[in-house]
Each structure stands twice: as C-alpha cells, then as structure tokens.
Specification:
about 0% strand; single chain; mainly alpha; Growth Hormone, Chain: A
Length: about 350
C-alpha cells in the first residue's frame, strides 16, 4: 500500500517538472541550424589545423621594406604584349632624343666656333662707303615711288591727257611701278644666284637706265612701258640690297646696315618731293623740268655701276664662299678687315661652319 503511494507521488513530481508550453517547430529548426553551423566551424578549424605547414601562406613584407636588389624577383612585367609596346615606345623616344641631342650639339659647336673666331680690325671707311653704294638701290626705290606725284599735272599736259583720260592714265602710270616691282622681285633671286650680287646689281642698273630713257619720249605708251621697266629694277633692288648688305656686314653690326638702307629709301622719297617743289603750275606747265626729275636718279645709277666696276670689285664674301672661291672670299674680306692672318682664320672657320651645316642638312 505504501509502495503504491510512493510511486504515485514520484509521478506527480515528474509531471510538475515538465514545461507548461512545448517549444514551437520554428524554434526547433533554428536551434538545429545553429548547432549545425557550430559543428561546421569546428570541423573547418580541425581541417586547417591538420593542414601541412607547406600550404601556409607566408606573410608578405611591405614593398618599401624589400631591398632594391631583391625587387627584381618580386616585380615582373605583366604580359609580352606590354613588353612589346614599351619597347616600341622606348625606341621612338630614343630616336627622338638622339636627333635632338645631335642638333643641339651641332648648334653648340657652331656657337662656340663663332665665339672663338678671331675678331679682325674693321676698315670702317671702306665698309661704310661700300654699304652706301649698295644702298643706292633703295634710294632709287624711294625716289621712283614719289616722283610722279609731283609732276603728274605737267606730264598730263605734255601728253594731252584731258577729261576722264587724265584720271585713267595717271592711275595706270602710278601703278606701273608696283606691277613692275612684283616681276622684278620674282626674277631677282634667280639672277642673283646665277651671276652673284655685284653683277646682279649692274644688270638691274642697266635695265633702270633703259626705263628712264624710254620715259623721255613724249608718248603715253612709252611712259607706261618706261615706268614698268623702272618698277622692274626697283623690285630687284628691294630684294637684292638687304641681302648684299647682310653678307658684307659683320654679324654684330647687321642692325646698323638694315637701318642704313631704310634711311636711303626715305631720303629718296624726300628728294622726289623736294625736287617736285620746283614744278611749274598746271596753268603754266614746264615741259622740261619733269624730264629732269625723271632723269635725276640716273646719275646715281651710273655712279653705282662705275663704283662696282672700279672700286668695289669683289662680290660678297659669303657668296664667294658658297661658290667655292676661297681665294676670292679672302680678297673680299680684305676690303672689310685689316689683318691678313686673321682674315684667313675667319675663312677657315666659315668653311668649317658651312661643312657642319651641310652635314646637318643631309
């Protein structure tokens, strides 16, 4: 009896320990997934611990900590294509650098040679007189530009230009100088290259004399043709005068030479207007004075030819050097400098510089 009672009491106590609410199905699934994850982590850790030591990834050092001698083993070029592209670019850059260095070296060598060149004493009187003779071309240029403005009334009366014809002929005669100058400048380069600076001057001086002579004829056609021929020579003077002066003038004084022939142009222009002050009024025309004004520059043209043939007999030294006439170049420099030994040294240096330039152009 007592045994039965004890069994009943123990059953009641066990029932009291049972939870009043059973866990739901979702909570059971969640607990199972967590337990599975924990199991997976445990298995993974065991696997990693059991791996052989050779499979461990070594810790890399910072790039800055690697010695320069060891970086060749660490740094590698990505692909063969990158290598080819880099080589192509490097080759082009090297070629460009090589050309630049070569040109700079030649220029530096030329400058050093010019700086080391002997400075011979200049014959200033001889040099300035030769420059004045060459500048006659620019004087004639300025004179021919301004001369017709002062005498057009007397010319129109003498050639019977009246009414609308006067305006037309005055315009044509005025513009003939400019038209002729275009052709003269175009031709002067070939003539100068063929016969040299001095003889080119003489040739165009002779052409100018022909043009002046034709304008003396009291005829409209002759006036137009004569002015065109004068313009032809003027255009040649414009191209030839600066070239000749720059080739005989020492390099450091070239600016003074440029100023000289520009002054000559303005003096010629002033001379034309000054002589035009004596022109008679159109109601009392003077049929002689306008011809005198046209003839006036012929005096300087003849003087220019005489001086080239008797006094300044040599061409420009640089032109003679280009033609290979070294002795003629030395004779031409004797007209500019005193010391004969230094002149020969100058010519030797110029020959060397010319060879360097020719090599550079090849």
């Amino acid at each position: 009896m007592d045994n039965t009672k004890d069994k009943t009491e123990s059953k009641v106590e066990n029932l009291e320990q049972v939870p009043k609410e059973l866990p739901k199905a979702d909570e059971i699934k969640k607990e199972n997934s967590i337990s599975n994850q924990n199991k997976g982590k445990i298995e993974y850790n065991k696997t990693v611990e059991n791996l052989p030591k050779e499979t461990e990834v070594p810790k890399t050092e910072k790039q800055d900590d690697i010695p320069i001698t060891d970086r060749s083993d660490v740094c590698k070029i990505d692909t063969d294509r990158d290598i080819e592209e880099n080589l192509g670019r490097n080759k082009e850059e090297e070629d460009e650098i090589r050309v630049n260095v070569k040109s700079e070296a030649l220029e530096t060598e030329k400058k050093e040679e010019e700086e080391e060149a002997p400075q011979a004493k200049i014959r200033w009187g001889r040099l300035l007189s030769q420059m004045l003779n060459i500048s006659i071309g620019y004087y004639v240029f300025g004179y021919e530009v301004g001369v017709f403005n002062s005498i057009q009334g007397n010319v129109a009366f003498d050639l019977n230009w009246t009414g609308t014809d006067e305006k037309t002929y005055v315009t044509i005669v005025s513009v003939m100088i400019a038209i002729g100058a275009v052709f003269g400048a175009a031709v002067s380069g070939k003539v100068t290259a063929a016969v040299g600076r001095k003889w080119a001057f003489i040739i165009f001086d002779c052409i100018m004399i022909v043009g002046i002579s034709i304008t003396f004829i009291a005829n409209t056609a002759a006036m137009i043709i004569g002015r065109f021929i004068c313009g032809f020579s003027v255009g040649a003077y414009v191209a030839l005068t600066p070239l000749f002066i720059h080739e005989i003038m020492p390099d450091k004084y070239i600016g003074y030479g440029s100023a000289l022939y520009n002054i000559a142009f303005n003096v010629g222009l002033i001379s034309a207007f000054g002589l035009g002050n004596n022109v008679a009024p159109t109601d009392q025309p003077d049929l002689v004075w306008w011809r005198v004004m046209y003839f006036f520059p012929g005096i300087f043209i003849v003087l220019n030819i005489i001086l080239f043939l008797t006094v300044f007999k040599f061409d420009s030294p640089k032109n003679l050097l280009q033609e290979g006439d070294h002795e003629g170049c030395i004779d031409a420099y004797r007209e500019i400098y005193y010391d004969d030994e230094e002149i020969r040294e100058i010519v030797k240096i110029l020959v060397l510089v010319r060879r360097v330039i020719l090599l550079k152009n090849q």
